[in-house]
Amino acid sequence: MARLQSFSEKHPSIPFIHAHPGLVRTNLVANSPSTLIRASSFLTRILTRLIAITPDECAEYMWNSIYTTVGNKPGAWRTGWKGEDLGKRRYYGDGEKRKKLWEHTSAVVEVALGRSTDSATYMN
């Protein structure tokens, strides 16, 4: 979320959304390269059917967050698994942390793009 707030400060007319989709029923476990994890997929499928939502439900909630919760209102947004606005609930960031994260991530990107070789910048 801190990263989105930084983007929002730099581009104040654009909405940025951090969405938490919750537990979604997928075939991720069944397609795992790990034999042990694949073997547990039968049990996992039964348990997740009780508490997880389908990919279609997830998509509906995520689109709902885009169109209803956020709309075209600029700023940084946090939305929950049903597309609801989470606001600052259980958010622990502040301006100083946001600044440090921006500087760190920018340095990592510069190194990844080959524009800088100063890996010590982001290793702290």
State the domain count.
1
| Stretches with pLDDT under 50, minimum 5 residues | none
Gyration radius, to the nearest Å?
Answer: 19 Å
General form: extended
**Binned strand content:** 5-15%
Strand order of the largest sheet: 1-2
Q: What's the end-to-end separation, in Å?
A: 21 Å
SSE order, one letter for each helix or strand:
HEHHHEHH
Biggest sheet statistics: 2 strands, parallel
Total count of strands? 2
Number of helices: 6
Textual characterization of the structure:
The chain has one domain. The protein has helices spanning 2-10, 35-39, 41-51, 55-70, 95-112, 120-123; strands spanning 15-19, 75-79. The mean pLDDT is 80. With 124 residues, the protein is mainly alpha-helical. The chain has a two-stranded parallel ribbon with strand order 1-2.
